[in-house]
Structure formats: C-alpha cells, structure tokens
Design a protein that fits this description.
Radius of gyration: 37 Å
InterPro entries: MT_TRM10-typ, MT_TRM10-typ_sf, TRM10/TRM10A, tRNA_m1G_MeTrfase_euk
Distance between the termini: 82 Å
Strand content: 5-15%
Bound molecules: S-adenosylmethionine
Shape: elongated
Oligomer: single chain
Function: S-adenosyl-L-methionine-dependent guanine N(1)-methyltransferase that catalyzes the formation of N(1)-methylguanine at position 9 (m1G9) in tRNAs. Probably not able to catalyze formation of N(1)-methyladenine at position 9 (m1A9) in tRNAs.
Number of strands: 12
Catalytic activity: guanosine(9) in tRNA + S-adenosyl-L-methionine = N(1)-methylguanosine(9) in tRNA + S-adenosyl-L-homocysteine + H(+)
Strand order of the largest sheet: 7-6-5-9-8-10
Structural class: alpha/beta
Protein name: tRNA methyltransferase 10 homolog A
Helix content: 25-40%
EC number: 2.1.1.221
Length: about 325
C-alpha cells in the first residue's frame, strides 16, 4: 500500500485524537489536511476515500483508540502515583505516631546521676585514638540529649590533644548544652565519697545504680595497652570502683572491656529499663558477638572481642 493511500484514507475526525501527520507503513509522513473534502466515512467510523487493507484499518483504529485513551491513561497514572504517595505517607504517620505517642506519654525526667568521662589520659593516646575518643564523646553527648533519663554529663580534665581536635573538627562543642566541660580533675569537683570509677578490672560488680553517685568512665582508647590503669587509679585515690554486671548476662571472652560510648549508653539504657540484660542487648551490637548467657553456641559464642571492638570508630576501645 502506498503512502498516498494511507493519507487519503481514514482520517480520524476529531482534533486531538490523531496527530496531524500520520506516518505510513514505510515510515514516510504525509499531511492529512488536503484530504478533508475527499473523505468518506467508513462503517467503523474511520473515514476513507479509498478502501484500506485490513491491516491498515486495524492499525489506524488502534491508533485512534490509543489517542482517545490518552487522557484516561494519564488519569490512571496520576491516581496510581497518588495512591502510592498516600500509602507512603500513612506508613510514615503510623511510625511517627508510635514514637510520638511514646514520647508524649513518657516525659523526659533527668536523672540526678552524674556520669563523668575522665579525660586525664590524653598523653597516653596517639592522635588517631584521640580522634576515636572524640567521636565516642560526641556519641555520648547525642545519646544523652535524646535519653528519657539524661544524666548529669561531665567531661573533666578537658584539654590537650582532645581539646585541639575538638576545636579543629567540631567547633560547635563550645555551645553544647547540658554538659559540664571542665579543665579540672573530677576530684576537684566532686566529693570523694560520691565517686565510683567504672572499670572492668574491679572485683566489685554493680548491681544497682545509685543516682546520688558520680560514676566515672575512663576517657581512653588504648586497645588494652594500659590494662588495669583505671582500677589502679581508683585504688590509689581511695575512691569506689565497680565493673558492669556483664558477666551475669553476656557470654564473654576473657575480656569485657567496652568502649566509652558503650558504657555510657548502657548506663542510660539501664536508667530507662531498670534491667541490665535489656540494657546490654539494646546497646551492644550483635556483630560484636554479644550472646546472652545460656544461648551461646560454640563458635559463634564469642563476645566483645577487642578486634571486633576496633571495627568502628565509635565502638573502638
Ligand atoms: C576502652 S576502656 C579503657 C580500658 C583501660 N585499659 C582501663 O584500664 O580502663 C574505656 C573505659 O570504659 C569503662 N569500661 C569498659 N568496660 C567496662 C566494664 N566492663 N565495666 C565497667 N567499666 C568499663 C572504663 O571506665 C574504661 O576506662
């Protein structure tokens, strides 16, 4: 069939239903304008002058239907998009509602417990580890700000490499709220009898937290090169000391030395849940191999190894 036949034949009569120029079977384009007065309407509503082949009729009919349904298709696509958007929105709403409700029901009640990160070990760290400590402190600060029972947070003996690094990389720290950042040693700020040094080497195991006390965490990332340093310090200073009751709940390797932020977060979690086991497992990452006692199974039952603790800056100890 020639291209002429096609353009002379079935015009789809209404505007916007057919493009003005219709490509013929061979892909040539012919104008349909000049054909208007020669048009005759066929039985299927498609106008023509000369009879068309079945194939051409079909093709034109399809084209016509396709054009006619353009708006419908557009409308359907729009509806689909809106439906998906609504579904996404309602999912978000229900998630937010959940946490929103929680927050509304449980108002923030600050704890009187003082939690100190003792930054007096600055000289013992290389810059890389100081940077890790900085990140761990940032994490403690952020977690405390969003806790239901935030503690009275202190950084003591603040200075040296840590302070320089904070000035360089996080100038905003000077505006941190709800934290005491002090150059003094904690012993200059807090009564001796209130102090309890948290240290994994202490023979004393914490059972409860006393919110009248000030608990100290050693601000140190040492990969255990200075084993027992905080325990010795506490003994020398004649202050209380205690380890977290990890051994009662977590299958441990020989070591149970956690990173600063983990100890800090466990204290926050305990203040909220009043349950050590829950506190441990809400904070300690599964990948660290923390396994509840009794659920340990041979090879996977290692826990909290130093190597794994170093995988991530804020987890590193
Ligand atoms: C990476 S550790 C430092 C280890 C260091 N060699 C020492 O002797 O403390 C950082 C701090 O977290 C606290 N900490 C870590 N594991 C603990 C545990 N199992 N119980 C109590 N405190 C712990 C200690 O205050 C410790 O100084």
């Amino acid at each position: 069939m020639s291209s002429e036949t096609l353009t002379e034949s079935p015009e789809v009569p209404t505007e916007n239903t057919m493009p003005p120029d219709i490509p013929d079977v061979e892909g040539k384009v012919k104008s349909s304008d000049s054909q208007v007065d020669r048009q005759v309407e066929g039985s299927d509503g498609v106008e023509c002058l000369e009879p068309l082949s079945k194939r051409q009729r079909k093709k034109l009919l399809k084209q016509k239907q396709w054009e006619e349904q353009k708006d419908l298709r557009r409308q359907k696509r729009k509806e689909k998009r809106q439906k998906r958007k609504l579904e996404r929105q309602s999912k978000l709403d229900s998630n937010n509602e959940g946490s929103g409700r929680k927050r509304m029901r449980r108002e923030v009640v600050p704890s009187t417990l003082r939690l100190i990160v003792d930054c007096s070990f600055d000289d013992l760290m290389v810059l890389k580890d100081v940077k890790k400590l900085h990140k761990q402190i940032q994490r403690c600060y952020a977690e405390n700000r969003k806790a239901f029972h935030p503690v009275q947070f202190y950084l003591t003996s603040h200075g040296g490499q840590l302070k320089s690094n904070m000035n360089e990389n996080d100038k905003g720290w000077v505006n941190w709220k709800d934290i005491q950042i002090r150059t003094e040693h904690y012993s200059e700020l807090i009564k001796k009898e209130d102090l309890v040094y948290l240290t994994s080497d202490s023979p004393d195991v914490l059972s409860e937290l006393d919110e009248k006390k000030a608990y100290v965490i050693g601000g140190l990332v040492d990969h255990n090169h200075h084993k027992g340093i905080t325990y010795k310090k506490a003994v020398e200073q004649g202050i209380g000391h205690a380890q977290l009751p990890l051994g009662n709940f977590v299958k441990m390797n020989s070591r149970k030395v956690l990173a600063v932020n983990h100890v800090f977060e466990i204290i926050l979690a305990y203040l909220e849940k009043r349950d050590w086991k829950e506190a441990f497992f809400s904070v300690l990452p599964q990948r660290k191999g923390a396994v509840p006692l009794g659920e340990a199974n041979n090879s996977s039952a290692h826990a909290l190894s130093e190597k794994e603790g170093e995988d991530n800056d804020s987890d590193s100890n």
